[in-house]
Amino acid sequence: MTDASYKYSSVISECERRVTGRRGQNLTLPCNYDIKTNGPTEVCWGRGPVPTSGCSDQLLVTDGYNVIEETRVSSRYQLKGRLDEGDVSLTILNATEEDTGLYGCRVQISGPFNDEKHHVNLTVKRDNAHKPHPHPSTHTHKHKLTYIRASTSGVSN
């Protein structure tokens, strides 16, 4: 008789934020990870929700240390933060109304289903000549932490 058992535990972290700014501003979409715990790791930014793997409508990818230039779809997309401190926030230069929408940042953490997913809803408003230009604003609206546990055991003769 053999006894087989399998246990699995996973944590998926998702965070959604909102950034609002005006046309022509440089707008930064926040994304950070704990580099002390995870070390430098690959990160990708894309438009739309972060899928099961990779990034949808990919904008750029890092190797953990630098942006992989051949993955950058436009020079308007920059990482101006300290990658060596886990700041992989995306800056969109000279934002336009067409930039409005959902963006996703995937931080690839080793192991199955360990990746961090950060979602940012960006709103770019038309410039209004009668109002002063406020600074862009960032608000955290939702943080979702999902625990997945599965356990199976079986006995065979």
UniProtKB/TrEMBL annotation:
Bilayer disposition of the protein: Single-pass type I membrane protein
Q: Name one GO biological process term.
A: apoptotic cell clearance
Domain named Ig-like is located at: 24-121
Q: Give me the Gene Ontology terms describing cellular component.
A: membrane
Q: Name one GO molecular function term.
A: phosphatidylserine binding
The compartments listed are: Membrane
Residues of the signal peptide: none
Q: Which UniProt keywords apply?
A: Disulfide bond, Glycoprotein, Immunoglobulin domain, Membrane, Signal, Transmembrane, Transmembrane helix
InterPro entries (alphabetical): Ig-like_dom (IPR007110), Ig-like_dom_sf (IPR036179), Ig-like_fold (IPR013783), Ig_sub (IPR003599), Ig_V-set (IPR013106)
**Chief place of localization:** membrane
Entry superkingdom? Eukaryota
Mind telling me which PROSITE patterns this protein's record contains? IG_LIKE
Known PANTHER family for this protein? T-CELL IMMUNOGLOBULIN AND MUCIN DOMAIN-CONTAINING PROTEIN 4
Query: Hey, which family's this protein in?
Result: Belongs to the immunoglobulin superfamily. TIM family.
Question: What is this protein's record name?
Answer: Ig-like domain-containing protein
Q: Which organism is it from?
A: Oryzias melastigma
